[in-house]
Structures are given as structure tokens and as C-alpha cells.
């Protein structure tokens, strides 16, 4: 068995990818220290706690439970050793702004009837669509997600090429969904999952229809204590394996190479044999490495397609918000304009598509008695002007919109309010232009076209997290940790 006995590794950043790879590396015998610039572990999956309210600041959908099971199983544990799980019913609710309301539930027959009510034959089309997406999920996970195909030659293998063709890798999601459903609302339901990948129906390859298998078939779950509870679990596992964590310790530079690194921090340098960076790729490449060691130039990072940023309102409110489910989407009937205002002509959306999360519907511990805890998330273009006046104006627009289209009027009931937007993403996570999620999953930024786990010009420096493969999302970043550790073991084990 390969081992990293005697190797010291510094992991920069305690996001899901950093925490995950730290577990794999410690398990392989390395002496692992994770340093994190912020005051808590979790990265984008941080928690906000105020006046008896507790919010997951970022991820709130626990999807792909199989990925978490596989992760913990590697260490002879199960997720339930660390947190319980509740299957949500409904998985989510959608309010279309013209007045319709649809629940997507764990019961497929019920969802088929809803689809049928919009379009003759759509129930059966849904079944076919989900069957295709299940096949894509199985092929995609086995051949492309769990295996790190970071070089073109990996794809020239005939068998792999055949699998890739089977996934209809090249077409857009828009075209793929239109092949099955004519009704625009059904198309929207099937395409919404792309927001998880930071893309739009036009710029995301059809391969990602596997996301429908994720949400319709594998289900939407709520972990005990929210996604923060999952972070606690992974960090706890790391401690059991010997990982050490230091918060409030930013890296300010990476010097040297394998065996003789100098990781600069305001508290003094660290001198590990190997370094893994979980900080956003552009930050590590352009701000932590000296110019002669950077893998890319500024033009490269400038020319990438970034996933949206987000305008977030964390709200503690008096009373219930019964109209909303744990997960609720509010969608304009024509949402092309919103996507255009994210990807084509960046602007604050006039008629936003947004998401509300109400964990207090499921969990009594996240809000004081008689109160509800919710957050509202509007995806917006990264790099927009983000001023206090703009936030104030947009907050009013969103709360008015929520009242108009869901019947949930929060305006006189808010007892706690925090806002989080582009500037906060940039400052808190060192994210490029304040993107919430990193590099979008366009065709040109999928699989081998994402930046590699091995830094291009520094031996012994590795990258992990949402900007690498497989990509965005908590499950993907967990897997990214596994792939990065495999690369380290291949080179040093
Ligand atoms: C609002 C929002 C909602 C989301 N919803 C979901 C969801 O419902 N389900 C889902 O699966 N995913 C969701 N995601 C995506 C998911 O949260 C991310 O893809 C994932 O958590 C990113 O993990 P990562 O490994 O890339 O690390 P990150 O979370 O990006 O963490 C990187 C860490 O590095 C630290 N760092 C940066 N620079 C330095 C430095 N110089 N020195 C030390 N530390 C540094 C940062 O502070 C951060 O803690 C959401 C994300 C956001 C923002």
C-alpha cells in the first residue's frame, strides 16, 4: 500500500476540498496541517450565528448522499457516525411568478401527474428523461468524476470516447431538454439544477442532465445541524486521523518547491515538504505564487467564464412562513433575461429568479421559539458594482417580489438581517471578482479543460476544490479531495 509516512503537508484553506484531502492524506500517513484565513472551518460552507438564529451561509442542499457514504466509507465510517439525515418532502417547491405553484416530491408518480397536467405525455417523457439521466450519472461518475482524466490522451482511449459520446457531451442542456418537453415551465424545472453548477441552459453541456437524477431520484436531504453539521463531521474525522487545524491564519505567499517549501503567513513561515491549496485557483496562482512560477497569466483568468456571484439575505423573522417549503424557488415565467443579465450583459436582474431556504421548517434548533430562519439567494453576475445603496434597493425589490409572488410578507417581521454579496465573496474567500462558485461548467471548462490538480510550474504543489475537477458543489469538492490525494500519492507514495 502506498504511504506518505514522514511527509509534512500544509493545506491552505479549509473548504470542503481542503478538509477532504486533509483526511485522505493523513490517512495515508502524512503529517497534515490545515491553515484557514477565516475564523471558522468550512469555506463557502461557513455558518452565521446571531441572536439564537443559525444560518448555513452557502450550501444548503444535501445532494448525492452516495458520495458522502463513499467518502466516510474510505475511513471505515458512515455519515451517520457524525450526523443524521432527513429526507425532505417536498424536495422543493416552485412558485412561477404568473401564479402557478409546483411541488417536486420524492414520489415520482405524483410528479409525473403534475407534469402531465402541463402537457400530454410529459409524465412519460419525465420517466424517459430520468432514465437517461440515471444512465449518464452512472457512466459519468464511474468514468469521468471518480477518475481524474486530466489529459487529452485519457480521452483518446476508445472505450472512454464511446462513453463520452453516449453522454451526448457536446449539445447544450437547452436543446436536450427541448427534445423531451415543449412546455416552458417543464423546461425550467428540468434546467434549474444548472444553477448548482453555476451555468445557464445555453452554456452548460447536456452531460449535466445527470443532475436531474441527483435531485429527482437520489433525493434532497437535510443533515442534522445543516451543512455546517457535515463540516463539523468531516473536521472531526480529520482530527481522529491526526489533522491539525489553524483558523485566522492566512497564507500570504508560497515559495520554494517540493521538500523545501516556505508558506508565508503573518504569524511566521511554515516549511512543509508538500503544499495543497484549496484557496480559489486564480488567487493561489496569481497572488500566492511568484510570477515566474504562475501556471497561467492574468489574461487566462480574465477570459474564463465564471459562475454567478449571489445577493444573499439572511433573515430572522417572527412567526411562521408556511407558504414556503424548506427549499423554494421563485421563477419568472421568462427567465432568459435573468440568465442574460448574468452571462451576456451583466446587470442586477430586473425580474430575478431566486431561491429561499427555510431550515426552521425542518429543524427547531436554528431559530428561537416563535421565529423562523430563512435566507434568500439571488444569483447575479460577478464583478457588478456592489454598494450599500444598491444592496438596500435590491433588498426591497426582493422582499416586495417575495410578498407578491408567494404570499410571504416578511417586511414587518424581520428581527435580524444580514446581507452578503459580491464584495463579501471577494474579501472573505479571495474569490475572483466575487464569484460565489468559481469556474462555471461550460464545455470549455469541463473535465480536462478545468485547471489541473498538479500545479503547472511548481513540483510538490497541488490544488483542490471547486475550480479543479470534478467541479462545483459540496459532493464534487469532497471527490476533488480524493483525486488530489491520489495525485500526491502517485507522486510521493
Ligand atoms: C451561496 C452558495 C450556495 C451554495 N449552495 C450549494 C448547495 O446547496 N449544495 C452544494 O452542494 N453546493 C453548494 N454551493 C457550492 C459549494 O458550497 C462549493 O462548491 C464548495 O463548498 C466549495 O468548496 P471548495 O473546496 O472549493 O472550498 P471553498 O469553500 O472555496 O473554501 C476555500 C477556503 O480557502 C480559504 N482561503 C482563501 N485564500 C486563503 C489564503 N490565502 N490563506 C488561507 N486560506 C485561504 C477561504 O477562506 C476558504 O475557507 C453553494 C455555494 C454558495 C456560495
Automatic annotation (TrEMBL):
Pathway: Carotenoid biosynthesis. Residues 17-489 form the Amine oxidase domain. InterPro entries: Amino_oxidase, Carotenoid/retinoid_OxRdtase, FAD/NAD-bd_sf. Pfam families: Amino_oxidase (PF01593). One of its GO terms (molecular function) is oxidoreductase activity. GO terms for biological process: carotenoid biosynthetic process. Keywords: Carotenoid biosynthesis, Oxidoreductase. NCBIfam families: crtI_fam. This is Phytoene desaturase.
